[in-house]
Each structure stands twice: as C-alpha cells, then as structure tokens.
Specification:
By secondary structure, the protein is α/β, with parallel strands linked by helices. It has a domain at 74-345: Aspartate Aminotransferase, domain 2 (3-Layer(aba) Sandwich). Helices cover 44% and strands 15% of the residues. The protein is built from 17 helices and 15 strands. It has helices spanning 11-21, 29-35, 61-64, 73-85, 98-110, 124-141, 162-167, 171-177, 191-194, 200-218, 244-254, 276-280, 307-316, 330-345, 348-368, 401-415, 436-456, and strands at 40-44, 47-50, 55-58, 115-121, 149-153, 183-186, 223-228, 258-262, 286-289, 301-306, 374-380, 383-388, 417-418, 420-421, 425-428. The strands form 3 sheets. Strands 4-10-9-8-7-5-6 form a 7-stranded mixed β-sheet, sandwiched between helices. Strand 2 (47-50) and strand 3 form a beta hairpin. The longest helix has 21 residues, at 348-368. It starts with 10 loop residues before the first helix and ends with a helix. The chain binds pyridoxal-5'-phosphate. Residues 63, 123-125, 128, 157-159, 229, 233-234, 262, 264-265, 290, 301 line the site of pyridoxal-5'-phosphate.
Length: 460
Amino acid sequence: MNMQNHHKRETRDYQELDASHHIHAFLDQKVLNAEGPRVIVKGEGLYLWDNDGNRYLDGMSGLWCTNLGYGREDLVAAATQQMQQLPYYNMFFHTTHPAVVELSEMLFSLLPRHYSHAIYTNSGSEANEVLIRTVRRYWQVVGQPKKRVMIGRWNGYHGSTLASSAMGGMKFMHEMGGMLPEIAHIDEPYWYAHGGTMTPEEFGRRCALQLEEKILELGAENVAGFIAEPFQGAGGMIFPPESYWPEIQRICRQYHVLLCADEVIGGFGRTGEWFAHQHFGFEPDTLSIAKGLTSGYIPMGGLVLSRTIAEALVEKGGVFAHGLTYSGHPVAAAVALANLKALRDEGIVSQVKKDSGPYLQKGLREIFTHHPLIGEIQGTGMVAALQFAEDKARRQRFSNESDITWRCRTYGFEEGVIIRSTVGRMIMAPALVAKHSEIDELLEKTKRAVDRTARDLGLM
Ligand SMILES: Cc1ncc(COP(=O)(O)O)c(C=O)c1O
C-alpha cells in the first residue's frame, strides 16, 4: 500500500485536533472525543486502511455511495482533466458547459423514456429540498396552486437539512431541528416490526391504504406529492411487501398526487436494476439521486423530472426562481459521466443482477436463516439487512435492540469488516464491483461479528 501521503501525524494527534474543531454526523460528540475516531487514510477496491495500518473490508460502500469501489483511476483522470480545462462555471448567465450536457445525455440514456430533465444539486438532501419547491411550482404552473403538502413516511430518511429531514420520518431529528408546515407522514411498511398477525401482503396493502386515508383527510386538492425510498435505507434496509408499491401507485394516480421516489441509495445499480423503482416495478414522477451518481468521489445530486412535469415547467412556467452556485458543477459532472460510463461499459449493473447479487443473497440466507439471533433476512442485489430477534418464533425484538446492533457493528470493526447498525438491524451494501472472494470474506466476518453478539446474549 502506498502510504506516501499518510503518517504525517500520529493517530492521537489527528484525534485530538478533530476533537478540538469538528462536529461529526449523528454521534454523541463527547463520547466520540473520548474514544477517538478511526482515522481512515486510504481506500482501494473494497478495502479501507486506517492510520495505524489496519485494513477493513467496507461492507457499506462508504455510505452506500462508492458503487465502483475506491481507487478508480478513470474517475481521478476525469476530475483532473476537467479541473485543468474548466474547474467551474455557472448555469445562471445563459451558459452551460460540455461536462453537464454530456452527463445529462448519459443519464437520460440510462433512465426510462418518460424522464426528460434534471436539476442538479450537490447532495441528496438538496435534491429533496429542490423537490419540494419544484413540485409546488409545477402545481402552480398547471393551475392547482393549493397543492403544496408533501406526505412522507415515519422512519423514512431524505436528508439532514430542514425540509428534507421534515419530510423524513426520524422523530428524533424533528425534535432537534423542528418540523415544517405542509408536511405529513404515514406509517412505514416494516412488516417484521409492525405487521402483527397480518400476512406481509395484507400489511403492505394496509400501509398503502394509509396514504389514501391521509390524502382524503388533507384534501387531495392540497396534496402535492408523496415521497418515499423504494426500500428504506437509513431506517434499516426495509423492503416493503410486494403488495405495497402497486397500491401506492394506484392511489397517487387516482388523487393526482406526484409519486416522488428517493433513489439516493437505490439508484445506479444497487438492486441489480439501474434504479430501485425498476426492481419494484412502479413508475415515479420524480427521482431524487445522489451518492452512486459519482460513486461518492465528489459531491453531486439531482432531481430527475418526468417529461410531463418538465414540459409544464419549460413550456408554461417562465422563470423558475431557483438555482445553486454549484448546480451541474463541471468537475462533479465529469466524474459522474466517467462513473456512469464505467457502470455501463463494464456491465456492472447486470453483473449485480445476474451474478454477484444472487451470490451475496444466497450466502446470507445459507448462513443466517437458522441463526439464533436473526429473525429475517431482506435484500436483493448488493443491499441486505439482518433483522435481530429475541424470539424468532414470535417475531419479538429486543427492547434494547439499538445497543445490541451497535455492539455487533463494533465487533465488525474488530473483525475487519464495516457493516452498519440501525435500530434493530445490521445492514450491508458493498461496492457493486465486489468479487466472490470479497463477498465470501464479507459473509465470514459478518458471521463472526453476529456470532460474538449472540454469544454475549447467551443465544449460542
Ligand atoms: C434515501 C436518502 N435520501 C437522501 C439522503 C441525503 O443525502 P445526502 O447525505 O447526500 O444529503 C440520504 C443519505 O443517506 C438517503 O439515504
């Protein structure tokens, strides 16, 4: 491993400086400062190294984003060339540039034909902020200005900015940052936790019908859109029952409510389809994208619009008073283009569908179906969740499930694998380029972490 840029400082020095000046994401900063964060210094393929030379298999693609893995020279070259040629220009002054034009050409060649335009952002949170303004503007333009309410789902995640977190359903985030008006929520389709005695199919339909009830309660004339992740990511890689999405789509169409899919995690091959809604077989009106768009090499997101919405905005909308300094940033666009080219030309998405995805999913089921700690395995392609259960027969969860999964995650680090804990589930999403040997290692190390957790609980 080439460490030429590293070991400039001792790990302790990095940790102390970090503690002095940096507030991290979603952590108790005081606890983190006392423990000291791992200092990650290098990535190559699926592997990461810390400042002390420890190697980890990254089972989470960073944060579901390094779809191509680390260390891709083609992406580095694309960024370098673009920086030399034109490091920045804006979209405000009747101007554009080849990088963003070519990215759009590529993106819409991969998307189903009924999408036609994108508004580029820097992140997924921003994509969802832009979503709210764009759908409200759309309804104004087509003569229904009262349609302003966005409906999201409890335990959904759409970002950390004010409006994106408000549309998300993480109550602890609302408590800290506040809620916004004209946003409502319905329950999540998390059968294992909330399905009771219903079959998954009954439960899926029941959850979908809540959307209809909510629309009727608010008045369809006031509801602009319904936003949801095709499968919930941060909420626990929760895959809805098969009955869910067809019913949601029917309801959105019936009440003229835009169906807004948050594809920030599911997009760009994660499920073995280019976009997760294709895996589930529904047809959203908008797609929020980020993460895998650039394989995380540089920040970029976007809001993809159906032809119907885009045509209304373009043909009848006049000025849309909206713009970001870094929309369609040339360097980000060049990296995104190189990333999409690689995903397409190297056949990576179809490989996830036909080979590596089934290999991972089969391995997980072979190892964990009869494991005493695991009540359910969900996932497809290169995304999966292991549901922890105290009593598998009764689908009973641990009362302190967050602590237990957190411990499992720590054991994962000790075993040399990064898997993420959510409230009651361990989740994984390795890079789409994972080879069988790397998937074997991921499974083996995950099993060791889960076994250690089960032994602590007296289950093994
Ligand atoms: C589904 C979903 N939407 C939006 C976001 C927010 O994206 P970002 O962190 O790039 O703002 C995330 C981040 O994890 C996400 O998982």
